Amino acid sequence: MIQGGAKQVRFEFATASRIIFGSGTIIEAAPLAASLGRRALVVTGKDEGRASALFDRLRASGIETSIYRIVGEPQIGTVVEAAQIARFQSHDLVIGMGGGSVLDGGKAIAALVTNRSDIMDYLEVIGAGKPFENPSLPYIAIPTTAGTGSEVTRNVVLVSPEHRVKVSMRSPLMMPRVALVDPETTHSLPPEITASTGLDALTQLIEPYVCNSPNPLIDGICREGIRRAARSLSIAYDAGKNADARSDMALAALFGGIALANAKLGAVHGLAGPIGGMFPAPHGAVCARMIPIVAEANVRALQARSPDSPSLKRYDEVAQLLTGKAEAKAADCIHWLHTLCERLHVKPLSSFGLSREEIPSIVARAQKASSMKGNPISLAEDELTWILAQAL
Q1: Which domains are present in the chain?
Q2: Which of 11-20, 124-133, 197-206 has the highest mean pLDDT?
Q3: Three-state DSSP class for residue 19
Q4: 87-136 confidence digits (pLDDT tens)
Q5: Does residue 251 sit in helix, strand or coil?
Q6: Sign of the Cα pseudo-torsion (356, 358, 362, 365, in order)
Q7: Among 384, 369, 321, 375, which Cα is nearest to 213's?
Q8: Residue 295 and residue 334: Cα distance in Å, rounded?
Q9: Is residue 136 within 8 Å of 178, Cβ to Cβ?
Q10: Which of 183, 279, 365, 386 is the residue whose CA sits 20 to 30 A from 287?
Q11: Contact 297, 315 (CB under 8 A)
Q12: 377 DSSP 8-state letter
């Protein structure tokens, strides 16, 4: 593994105030909530029935609850409306239970309840990108997929339909008070969602590890997460009730969220942001399609223009973690990722409406994306074009 040598490094580490992980821990949500507030806004996805047992436990603990559903990826208007409802109903606690979109939405709502300026003041790209003035309402994040790691990140991603773009709000004040990760909540995920969210988690472990400014504290987290995803994603896809595989993937997603919150990402996310804003393409599905192709483009560019780059050696290390073979090299990483995506039947981007005509616009937007700045090497316009053409 790469050694830090005498090079001086500066890094930060931030995560949820408290992380609780383990099968069956969902029953701890109600007493945790009771310690934080008395009136909870519970944010769920389209199937609020998945949270019915949580509602029952909250009410039995004397907590008044209201429900707000987020269907699809959270839009700017959606979270503004929900924050207004929470203020009007005097909620003092927000609980998000669902996939990454639900958790991001709940995180945004909790922040906007206490930070009352126009949301455009806080949004990046299309707004002023100003910092929040006040801490969020207490927020408990309960993931029911194993992908984004939103339960431990300091940002949210929102869709602006008007601008056909996804934009972020970022602040350490948005960190959840509690991340409650129970792998049992993922046992009913269908294979397609298992694949896309699992590959999203793997992407969020690989990109911070090979990025141009890695965090030495995060390196160990990434290595452990990559190992777990490599041995368990296919098993979870084939046998959704396999407790060990689901536990591994829940940990991989958690580690990926910690990694992206404390290190940089890369071209997969740099391209996924514009695509998700322009097309009805789930973030995880886009990352799943792009991770092997971006790895191939990055390795080729590093070998041609920066053969001594530490990132190229790190691709060798990723290959060793994925394959379990000490002699594996970057080319083996690329082959392993392509093979896995084929096995998991990852859809091409054309299935979400993307066409060759849209590629120049996506490339132009991606070149301005903050995630692109962490890529291990700067990719030229023709290289980004090649990636998208291959992903169709």
Answers
A1: 18-186 (3.40.50.1970), 191-391 (1.20.1090.10)
A2: 197-206
A3: strand
A4: 999 999 999 999 999 999 999 999 999 999 999 999 998 999 999 999 99
A5: helix
A6: positive
A7: 375
A8: 6
A9: no
A10: 183
A11: no
A12: S
- Rounded to whole angstroms, the Cα distance separating 308 from 198 reads 31
Residue type at 157 in one-letter notation: V
**Euclidean distance between CA atoms 228 and 225, whole angstroms:** 5
Instruction: For residue range 278-326, list pLDDT tens digits in order.
Output: 999 999 999 999 999 999 999 999 999 999 999 999 999 999 999 999 9
Nearest of 368, 362, 369 to residue 384 by alpha carbon:
362
pLDDT over 80 (residue 2)? no
Q: Which residues contact 50 (CB under 8 A, 6 or more apart)?
A: 44, 97, 98, 144, 185
Rounded to whole angstroms, the Cα distance separating 66 from 164 reads: 31
Query: Contact 100/148 with Cβ under 8 angstroms?
Result: yes
Cα four-point dihedral sign 372, 375, 377, 379:
negative
Strand order in the sheet with 139-143: 18-21, 178-181, 139-143, 93-98, 39-44, 64-69
